[in-house]
Specification:
The complex is a heterodimer of chains A (256) and B (442). By secondary structure, chain A is an alpha/beta fold. Chain A is built from nine helices and twelve strands. In chain A, the strands form three sheets. Chain A has a six-stranded mixed beta sheet with strand order 6-9-10-3-11-12, with helices on both faces. In chain A, strands 2-1-4-5 form a four-stranded antiparallel beta sheet. In chain A, helix 6 packs parallel to helix 7. Chain A starts with a strand and ends with a helix. In chain B, the strands form two sheets. Chain B has a ten-stranded mixed beta sheet with strand order 2-1-5-8-10-12-14-16-18-20, covered by helices on one side. The chains are: A alpha/beta (256), B alpha/beta (442).
């Protein structure tokens, strides 16, 4: 069944600094779905997210990834973004001297240009941004600040979600966006992500914790351990993990 | 070495001619100082890279070039010659080859009580001369610096600015130092700015050249006195031609509870050395040193800053960024002195350098000398190419590598530009930065 398949990961292997972190990941994400990828520390969750976005430090050694039927690894990171792939970084990068507004507008216009749409001027862009800001509970003062510079951990995460809302991707990958957030911030983030759900887009939530899944009900929950997906199930699997931890799965998955 | 020594000799000979020349008319006290200064220059000579303060910067090319002190009158320049260098319609003083150009200046339109004129004129006017005598040559350390000594020996003209107590200079005052580049000239413009208690002023110093081609040398000194509770923003743009030389000292002295912002944009000259010496000489004074150098080709620019915390409860925040491309070389040396008794000093220094090519080079040296115990001093410096993580982050948002590099490079400048408070000055600086970096987007 290849209908509506947005992302197909097949036997993906990847290394960082010569160490194999992904050891044969298989994953199929269809439009309209939310997938949660859970797993213990060091299982390869963030690596999977970064490999999909095109992080230069990771090397794909085997397998392939099809995004809308096209070879994802044949695309540079900016091409992936223009085609609708978005990664919310676990550790967003600060850029001194460049305002958030300028950054966001540059990103929006890069994508609009790719789609053959007219680029937005500063005023039009601010108008379009107003509503998105409200959703994440921000005033416009965040726009005149340099990108992530001097932002608290929570502010950085919200800024990623603002970018998600503004760029409106087809495939959003959230890399531990919920980590380090207080309850209110978590709710805001979760509600924003939930509002953006549509039948034609999909979300991969990489997370450590069950709590975000109480706000965004996933269609599929995967457990990544030792660089491969060792178990997949419905949202009840997340609850089971919350109660039992990961050790039982590790034992199940022990294969040299 | 013999070339350098003969270089020194040439200036001694030029001084003897200058001292007997009608152009050197000056009060007796100043003549005395000039004599002492040339004697000091004869002792010091041109510095060599064996001296710690000049380790990274060779001035052999200056010492070996036969510069002349122009004896003939200033060539007439039309208003169009200065237009590209002006920022606003405020008062301006134009100095051409070290001499005041009355026809290009609009110093008369200053508010009541504020004096803006040529330094030479001020020295001929009783009241101003007395004021000048109290300040001129008292701060810039000509006893230590051969170039400040040379400037002091040949001190004739420049700008004179006096803002009396509680007065305000509404619009930024522009001081334009223009070199005509004729006959390999050297000029020694000297500026004195005295802003008295509770007064406010913004001043823009622009160094430029009208002619492309021939080498010229500008050896400038500006002394800035900031009175108690006064507020001064001093902007400085150096956009001389690539064949030219520039050696300059900006010397400031602040009294208690005053504020001084020094904003520097260095774009020009083949060889540039700028010493900024700031003395916080009254409790509670605040200083911001905010500088940017953008270098390419074979340019060499050296910024040496000394911040002297002489009194308690002063704050100094220093930010210098450099973007160095092609075969250019940027040098930053930031010395911070906290004198005994200067308790509760708050000092922060950063110098970040972005290298745009493998041949580009930047040297960054912090120097902290702390003789008090209750102080907060931090410093940090970086030298390197564009951060690959920043590049990846921007690319992951759809920006091409070229656009991303442009944005990150411009960010180095924008960070500094963002601290410039006068919108019309900042806009002009921003335009110059974008022109240089080729980052055309709004």
């Amino acid at each position: 069944m290849t209908e509506n398949v947005l992302l197909q990961v097949q036997d993906l292997h990847a290394t960082v600094e010569g160490r194999e972190v992904l050891r044969g990941v298989d994953l199929t994400v269809r439009a309209g779905e939310v997938h949660a990828i859970m797993g213990p520390n060091g299982s390869g969750k963030s690596t999977l997210a970064q490999v999909l976005a095109g992080h230069p430090a990771y090397t794909v050694t085997a397998g392939r990834v099809l995004y809308e039927g096209k070879d994802l690894f044949g695309m540079a990171p900016e091409q992936r973004a223009r085609e609708g792939v978005f990664l919310a970084f676990q550790y967003p990068v600060a850029i001194r001297g460049i305002t958030n507004a300028y950054f966001l507008r540059s990103a929006v216009n890069a994508i609009r240009k790719h789609r053959g749409q007219e680029e937005l001027g500063p005023v039009e862009f601010m108008d379009a941004l107003e509503a998105k800001l409200e959703v994440i509970g921000w005033d416009s003062s965040y726009l005149t600040r340099p990108v992530n510079d001097g932002f608290s951990g929570g502010e950085k995460k919200r800024n990623e979600i603002l970018q998600l809302a503004v760029l409106d991707p087809k495939l959003a990958i959230l890399d531990e966006t919920d980590s380090g957030l207080d309850i209110d911030a978590l709710k805001t983030v979760a509600q924003t992500v939930d509002k953006l759900r549509r039948p034609d887009n999909a979300t991969i939530l990489v997370t450590h914790y069950y709590r975000i899944l109480t706000h965004i009900a996933p269609d599929v929950v995967h457990v990544l351990a030792g660089g491969r997906i060792v178990k997949s199930g419905g949202k009840e699997l997340a609850l089971e993990l919350e109660e039992k931890g990961y050790d039982w799965l590790r034992e199940e998955a022990t294969v040299a | 070495m013999s070339d350098v020594a003969s270089g020194t000799e040439r200036y001694l000979a030029d001084f003897r001619a200058f001292a007997h020349n009608g152009a050197a008319v000056a009060p007796a006290w100043l003549k005395e100082i000039r004599e002492s200064a040339i004697a000091r220059f004869a002792e010091l000579g041109f510095p060599t890279t064996k001296q710690e303060e000049w380790r990274f910067t060779s001035v052999a090319a200056i010492a070996e070039t036969r510069f002349t002190h122009p004896a003939s009158p200033i060539p007439q320049l039309g208003p169009r010659a200065i237009e590209p260098f002006l920022i606003g319609g405020g008062p301006r003083v134009v100095i051409v080859d070290g001499h005041y150009a009355a026809e290009l200046s609009t110093a008369s339109s200053t508010p009541k009580g504020v004096r803006v004129s040529s330094l030479a004129a001020a020295l001929r006017t009783d009241g101003d001369s007395a004021l000048a005598r109290g300040h001129l040559t008292r701060y810039a350390r000509w006893q230590e610096s051969p170039f400040a000594a040379l400037n002091t020996a040949f001190l004739v003209d420049g700008a004179f600015v006096h803002v009396p107590a509680d007065a305000t200079l509404e619009q930024p005052l522009e001081i334009l130092y223009l070199a005509t580049g004729r006959e390999r000239t050297v000029s020694h413009p000297r500026t004195l700015v005295v802003v008295e208690r509770g007064a406010r002023a913004a001043i823009v110093e622009t160094f430029a050249g009208v002619a492309e081609g021939g080498p010229y040398w500008t050896n400038a000194v500006s002394e800035v006195v900031v009175g108690q509770g006064a507020h001064v923003e001093l902007y400085r743009v150096q956009r001389q031609g690539p064949e030219s030389f520039q050696i300059a000292t900006t010397q400031s002295r602040q009294e208690r509870d005053s504020f001084l912002g020094v904003h520097v944009l260095t774009l020009g000259a083949g060889l540039a050395r700028h010493d900024i010496n700031a003395v916080l000489d009254g409790a509670g004074a605040e200083l911001i040193l905010n500088g940017l150098y953008l270098l390419n080709g074979a340019q060499h620019a050296d910024h040496h800053t000394v911040i002297d915390h002489a009194q308690p409860r002063c704050a100094s925040h220093e930010f210098f960024n450099g973007v160095v491309g092609e075969r250019a070389h940027g040098v930053f040396n930031g010395r911070i002195i906290v004198r005994p008794g200067a308790q509760r000093t708050d000092s922060k220094q950063t110098n970040n350098n972005l290298l745009l090519s493998t041949e580009a080079r930047a040297d960054s040296q912090p120097q902290l000398e702390i003789y008090a115990d209750d102080v907060k001093c931090t410093h940090g410096s970086t030298v390197g190419p564009i951060d690959p993580m920043q590049l990846y982050y921007l690319r992951s948002r759809g920006l091409s590598p070229e656009t991303a590099r442009g944005i990150l490079t411009y960010g180095f400048g924008a960070e500094i530009l963002g601290r410039m408070r006068h919108p019309e000055v900042r806009a002009q600086m921003d335009r110059l930065v974008r022109e240089r970096l080729g980052e055309g987007q709004a």
